Amino acid sequence: MKKLLAALLLAPTAALAHTGHGGGAPLVAGLSHPMGGADHLLAMLAVGLWAAGIGGRAIWALPLAFVAAMVAGGALGAAGVGLPLVEPVILASSIVIGAAIALALRPGLAMVLPVIAVFGMMHGHAHGIEGPAQGLAAYAAGFALATAGLHGIGIALGRLPLARWLGAATAAAGLALAVA
Prior knowledge:
The longest helix is centred in the last third of the chain and has 23 residues, at 136-158. By secondary structure, the protein is mainly alpha-helical. The chain is globular and about 45 Å long. It has helices at residues 2-10, 26-32, 38-54, 58-78, 86-102, 109-130, 136-158, 163-179. Helices cover 74% and strands 0% of the residues. It has one domain. Keywords: Membrane, Signal, Transmembrane, Transmembrane helix.
């Protein structure tokens, strides 16, 4: 019994890192998918944190760029179009954005938006590949709504005095995921 328990505790869990693979309503699967993987969750909260830290138009522009690019990437993934370096870029997103928050970097939107869009595209591609064959539009709507909600939570957290610490923790967690 002890050997079985040890084997279960030490078994790899990467295949279970994201929800939304099985049956169920596509909208519900889409809503839950971003919550199921720490790599997605961290980056999506970090986009909101950074948007709040930059302020002004960035508060709506960063989340909008991320979600729009994510939906486009999801369509590419669902269509079977491959993109290079998807997983490394997804992991890099929480590290890069978290570090930018921790360092209180506030570059102009012309510099930030393309970076955010690339990150969104890669996250979306992963969602699209893992999405259901039936009900893809509802699934995409679900993961877009969940992502926007996570950005909103990030924006709210970004207004707290501890936002830079949250950025540092995000970068550290992303780094831990990258080396795990």
